[in-house]
Batch of 2 targets.
Target 1
Amino acid sequence: MTTDLHGRTQRLELSDQSLRDFEAVVLESTPEGIVVNRSAFYPGGGGQPADHGVLIWQGVETRIVGVRKGDDLYLIPAEGDPVPPVGTVVRAAVADERRSALMRTHSGLHVLCGVVFRDYGCPVTGGNMEPLTARMDFNLPEVPAGFKEAVEAACNAEILADRRIDVRVLPREEAFAIPDIIRTATNLVPPEVQDVRIVDITGLDTQADGGTHVGSTKQIGRVRVTKVESKGRGFRRLRIAISD
């Protein structure tokens, strides 16, 4: 959500969400985690899971099954897989089908958020996603008649409008001058973060966000609201599925 560095690792996915293959140098390597100098693996956050993929080195393949955040970003190797020695140049590949599905899903959630905020004035209280399926929680005291169908129709109308999805980084003061930049019930951007990454669905939704997204709403596919659940007084959970 801020800089393109996390510890010793340059985060390539923040500036190029289409990047799937890259080269890197191993800086630290154990069966518990591998640190490289540059990475396009999304480490997870904001409800979006971490990427999977592989490292290829000296004719050997190491499967990456997650990413752990700490002082550095640690790529988590599959149990039992060999790990490359420090100093090795590796060829890395992010699992494209999984990442692309998560990008469509994450952008679909932003469309959902934009529609519910615009039409019902409700802030988000939580959310989570897996490839092509997700849920988002809203502070919605009453569920109007036809709510589920109306939200689904409005989301798909915005998708068909093919709205551009732009990503940019702004100084904190400038970012927080944007009206309704925080769509969650509480501000989740830590005070020490001075450069804020903004995801803007043109004409619909502008949010502080650190995840990966498609380039326009039409690339999402179709949103289906599968269920509306009550999660306590005034709180509703909307579950969605993404399809072609």
Note: Residues 96-120 form the longest helix (25 residues).
Target 2
Amino acid sequence: MRRAIAEIDAAEAPLGLDELATRMGMSPAHFQRIFSAWVGVSPKRYQQYLTLDHARRLLADRHTTLETALQSGLSGTGRLHDLFLRWEAMSPGDFAAGGAGLDIRWGRLQTPFGEALVMATEKGICGIAFLAETGFEAAWQDMTSRWPAARYLEDPDTVLPLARPVFAGKGETRLHMLGAPFQIKVWEALLQIPSGHVATYSDIARSIGSDRAVRAVGTAVGRNPVSFLIPCHRAIRKSGGLGGYHWGLPVKRAMLAWESARADTGPHD
């Protein structure tokens, strides 16, 4: 289905069901059934969510201001649909040490948005990078440069059980955020944006009490190490433009479209 989304996203005009099914090597009926079961809507309907002005419609119809949501703050746990998330932040001193003394385990996982590199400490997931646009080597260098003093161990049997609930949207997982204090504040604010909604960078700056720090907020959003779970893809420009995305704009567009489809139709197992 990630390959189907890539075909849809690259097309200059909407693709018919027969054409999509042929490209996927499936019968039209089989492709329609699998695509609808995964996304929650038909391929035709999904393509409407991927149009260029979709972000602008989100901004008009589902623009979430964060002040109300943040009044309750985070108490260490958050509810994301049916996913129960346990959150713990690294101390500033540990962050400054570059991950010294940490064992970070990693594995590769197929997700609705292509293959992902997932990293975790003993306390929980600390990194999710998407490989469709960057490739593995670039993503690996990016992630390991954030905590250069850590020891990295390939261990999918430990990491992947933590990551699978993230993309299934149900179950329980743990999160260990490794970042500077200002970054942590921004990432906490991102967690408050509901799925299927968006917020502007200035909304986020205002919600954390730093109205004038829009550029710094944008930088912190871009440095989020746990993509999708900490939903930096829900941050867009005031104009409705998507802005940038660390792992590629096609991935961001696919995430927003997928979440919008599920928000409009309800969750699908």
Note: The longest strand covers residues 103-111.
